[in-house]
Amino acid sequence: MTSRVRGALSAALIALACLLVPFGAVAAWAAYGLADTGRYVTTMAPLAADPAVRDSVADAVEDEVGEPVRPLVRTFTRTPAFGTAWDEGNRAVHQAVLRAVRDGGHHEVTVDIAPIAARVEHRVALPRTEIAVLPASQLDRLRKGYDVLEVAGFWLPVSAAVLAAAGIAVAACRRRALTATALGTALGGALLSLAVAVGRRLTLTDLPDPVHRPAVGAVYDALTATLRTVSWLLVALGLAVALTCWLTGRYGRPRARRGPAGPVPDPAQQPTRAQA
Question: pLDDT for 11-46, tens place per residue?
Fold first, then answer.
């Protein structure tokens, strides 16, 4: 294999690996972060102290159970007990959605808000405590996406690592290939951070009710905090490796010492026929 062919093959493998980096990060974040109930509840727990989230929760509960409980719900969201009820509610919603996605079925996903209702039922009787969290029309699409994420969350990062290693191994100049891989990884992390920011803007813009934008923005920021951290880690790691490769290539090799300059002796001359 000539050096030109090796260079082209290495460039193709490294480019494909760097392209898979942001997609692999998103897939792994969704498969192992959002799909884990414990991590999800821990991520959402600090939002119980956010005023915008409290108001949105109160509005949602009031729309479901009726106008008579409006003052009680507003008051309850500002008590310390709301944090416990918030965690229980998020756990119940997450488990209900996961159960519907994994077990199949085409019915609407509902959650019983008894953990919240039990704290105020001694003051008012609630007409019902079942709240719809996922319509049946979106369940099939969510189930297909979840199946894809379960596979992509593992294989995309592994494929990116294997392709990068193969691209560096077949390269004619491995230091240059490693530098290109590092810079591509940093670029992938920057694109991932940009995609998260653009996704936030699009999510808030598509909301039909602008009143709930602060609450949705707080939830979006909490859910994508890990993804933003990963994106900046990719940028920092890629730039650090690229800088290390450049420094070692420029200053790592000791320069050959030149000997003292002197007259170069003439080669011995062969005697001519006349001299012989």
Answer: 999 999 999 999 999 999 988 888 888 999 999 999
Question: Taking the C-alpha atoms of 123, 128, 134 and 140 in order, what is their torsion angle to the nearest 10 degrees?
Answer: 150
- In tens, the pLDDT along 58-117 reads 777 666 665 556 667 777 778 787 888 888 888 888 888 888 888 766 677 777 666 555
The residue length of the chain stands at 276
Cβ 10 vs Cβ 167: under 8 Å: yes
Give the CA diameter of the chain.
132
pTM score of the predicted model: 0.78
